[in-house]
Write a structure and sequence with these properties.
229 residues; alpha/beta; two-stranded antiparallel ribbon
Length: 229
């Protein structure tokens, strides 16, 4: 492929490729299987989600909270719970039009990645469900060996707001690329939290946008895409 002929495509996940918030839904699943106290957990989970939508989320505090239900359990046990979550909650929310959009960019030869503010434990199997090899998610510290269980703290730069831009640059550098190597850059997101990433794009796409992002998209003449009813 000639230099500068390949396109870069970056997808947000929650609300963009799936019509739910996977982190919030996984928290609800923790309640459903009895790993978290229902009313107390749900109130805090909903409050953090409201903060996220408002762009005021305290991410380290949220990570400490949202991982508490599963991070101290043996790794096989937490992995088995996630498999149930995928089967019972996530897969029923993966819609054909979202899969088709990802496949379009892959078949065109684009370099495709999912860039999400949800943690890597929750999202790694979801990226695999979409057939996307490159996932940039919030990385978690691990507890000391030999156990190696997940910790409730963030490792490195979180993929949230401006952090998504930094992580994309670092990821591309690791592949021997930089943004100027690409003929174009598509970014799909539903959230104004992703404005720093959308502003990198030659093709920013407000996808199932929140009212705030839709207003920005109309003001700037960005494409608006509604994948879900």
């Amino acid at each position: 492929m000639p230099q500068n002929a390949r396109h870069l495509c970056l997808f947000d996940l929650d609300g963009t490729l799936i019509p739910i918030d996977s982190d919030h839904a996984f928290g609800e699943f923790m309640v459903a299987i009895g790993w978290a106290d229902g009313e107390t957990f749900r109130q805090r989970n909903d409050a953090f989600y409201t903060d996220y939508q408002a762009g005021t989320l305290d991410l380290p505090a949220y990570i400490a909270f949202t991982t508490a239900a599963w991070r101290d359990r043996p790794l096989p046990e937490s992995a088995a719970a996630h498999q149930r979550f995928m089967a019972e909650v996530l897969r029923p929310n993966v819609q054909p039009q979202a899969l088709d959009l990802v496949r379009f960019h892959q078949q065109r030869g684009d370099l495709v990645a999912i860039v999400t503010a949800t943690n890597e434990f929750v999202t790694t199997p979801i990226a695999a469900e979409f057939g996307v090899d490159h996932l940039l998610a919030v990385q978690l510290e691990r507890q000391p060996e030999p156990d190696g269980r997940w910790a409730g703290t963030i490792r490195g730069t979180p993929t949230f707001r401006e952090g998504k831009v930094g992580r994309v640059h670092d990821w591309l550098a690791g592949l021997g690329h930089r943004l100027s190597d690409f003929s174009g850059i598509s970014v799909y997101s539903d959230s104004p939290n992703d404005l720093p990433l959308l502003e990198l794009a030659t093709e920013p796409v407000a996808t199932n946008p929140s009212p705030a992002l839709e207003a920005t998209a109309r003001e700037r003449g960005w494409r608006i895409l509604r994948l879900f009813p």
